[in-house]
Amino acid sequence: IFLPSFQDLFGVSMVVPLMNLHIKSLGASHTVAGIIGSLYGIMQLFSSTFVGCWSDIVGRRYSLLACILLSALGYFLLGTSTTVFLFAISRVPVGIFKHTLSISKALLSDLVSERDRPLVMGRFNAASSVGFILGPVVGGYLTELEDGFYLTSFICASIFLLNGGLVWMLPWSEENAGNREHQQGNKGTDRFSAKTNRDLHSKSATNGTVTSDSLFQSPWVQVATVLKRIKGIACSDLWDIFLVRLLMSVAILLYYSNFSLALDERFGVKPLFAGYLMSYSSALGVLAGCLLGPITRLYQHNTYRILLHSSTLTCTLILLYASALSIWMVVLSSTFLAFSTTIGRTCIIDLELTIGGNEASGTLLGVGQSVTSVGRIVAPLLSGIAQEFSPCGPPSLGVGLALVAILIMNANKQKYCSHGNVKLKNQ
């Protein structure tokens, strides 16, 4: 699972940095390019919850394969886009179905015990981040060749097809994911356990799930079940967790929103240095993912405390950046921020699954992804307004939002620490 996640972001990060250049070479204006980019974000916003919930219903295997193959189709169409219209069409399947990493996280949540989940998620994020670091370098090299963008897009599509083959070859079993925790002592002989097309059969009567027998025969039942599950999430007591995720996401996005421009205005630093600093932070984020195991053991697997402390550290470091008097203070804040944000991002996902329960892990991760997408839409607007007042405006606003998130966590401390499942309305 780690290998496809690495290849996924490796392939995507080869293509994404080159897309604006390509669409402008096709004759599109800045406005048209912006509209197409916004439409992709909107499709991601609305589809992530539905696709995540669908993966709970039909099983991880079929949903993951469908998302991988349809994403491959999107990147193949991108490699054939010789007009702006074809470019826009190629973004539709990717915008709707590029949720491969979310479903992979849900699959990992099915496979491992609650105690080991932060460690495994941290390693998963580290593997993905390595791909994101290496991809732009390879993409930049390939684009120097003749028809480089088209070649890069076809390579990305081929990588997704390879991932589809790897997922198909995984030793799927028919065991329930819940049985996995009873087998932790026999790690050498444990069979690969996942939510497959029949693993929810025993729970279908109580949870309203659809078994594999109706995978292709009852699409309307699947749609009804998806809507019922989403309603259950919307009516549950998980609002505070998703609000914390939204506030912290916007705070971090505000930190990075005008990073290069602010460094230039405040310290006279060239964009090249800012690029090196961001790559340095990404590399440290990979290291932070690998250190989650010792950190969770140090905190005795108390995810709430880790999240609270990492969020407090993130807030402090953004404040340090906003008030920095020299570039070295910026380097210092970026160094530790890479650790705190990576740890916090992993812990908020673990807390969602712990409080919400593993039975709807795909739905929970999908809703969380939608919340993050809302942050990506809101953050540029807030950044633009705050930047009218000062180059330090966006990070200063981010400090305020992070403080609100910390206060919400403190106000709901009892619920976070109890680790009791929040019952959804449809249960």
Automatic annotation (TrEMBL):
Q: In which compartments does the protein localize?
A: Membrane
* One Gene Ontology term, aspect cellular component: membrane
- From which organism does this entry originate? Alca torda (Razorbill)
Q: Which residues cross the membrane?
A: 62-89, 124-143, 149-170, 238-257, 277-296, 317-339
- Which InterPro entries does the annotation name? MFS, MFS_dom, MFS_trans_sf, Sugar_transporter_CS, Tet-R_TetA/multi-R_MdtG-like
Tell me the leader sequence span. Answer: none
Name assigned to this protein: MFSD9 protein
The encoding gene: Mfsd9
GO molecular function, a single term:
transmembrane transporter activity
Q: Where does this chain mainly localize?
A: membrane
Q: Which Gene3D superfamilies match?
A: MFS general substrate transporter like domains
Every Major facilitator superfamily (MFS) profile domain range: 1-417
Keywords of this protein's UniProt record, alphabetized? Membrane, Transmembrane, Transmembrane helix, Transport
Its placement in the membrane is given as: Multi-pass membrane protein
